Amino acid sequence: MITVILISIGVLFNIFGCIGLIRLPDVYNRLQSATKCVTLGCCSILLGVLFHFGLNDAGFKALIAIPVLFFSSTVAAHALIRGAYHFGTGLDKRTVKDDYKDVVK
């Protein structure tokens, strides 16, 4: 039962992340949505795989993949957002606050 719940939560996060990629206005919000999709969705699915298979080959690979996926996706999203900002990709007109503007100067 725990396996089904964790995999279902992961699939829901992935679906919501894909909807966010389509509906959100600018690259910064879309990358945030994609990062949440990967970290919460895929890590939850891998945790469900770990509970399903236990600590055999598949479970051990899932256990190793969770921190790798968690850290690499957040660092990659940060680098992409920083690169997009330095390249000059504009914020959406509905954006209220730009905290990074003062740091760049």
Textual characterization of the structure:
This protein has 105 residues and is an all-alpha fold. The protein has one domain. The chain is built from four helices and no strands. It has helices spanning 2-23, 27-53, 57-87, 100-104. Helix 1 (2-23) packs antiparallel against helix 2 and helix 2 runs antiparallel to helix 3. The longest helix is centred in the last third of the chain and has 31 residues, at 57-87. The N and C termini lie far apart (53 Å).
Number of helices: 4
Beta-strand percentage range: under 5%
Q: Tell me, what's the shape? A: elongated
What fraction, in percent, of the residue positions are helical?
over 70%
The radius of gyration over CA amounts to 17 Å
Tally of DSSP β-strands: 0
How many structural domains in the coordinates?
A: 1
Distance between the termini: 53 Å
Oligomeric grouping of the chains: single chain
Low-confidence stretches: none
What does the main sheet amount to? none
Secondary-structure content class: mainly alpha
- The SSE order reads HHHH
Topology:
Blueprint: H1 2-23, H2 27-53, H3 57-87, H4 100-104
Helix pairs in contact: 1-2, 2-3
What is this entry, summarized?
With 105 residues, this protein is mainly α. 81% of the residues lie in helices and 0% in strands.
Which descriptors would you attach to this protein?
105 residues; 4 helices
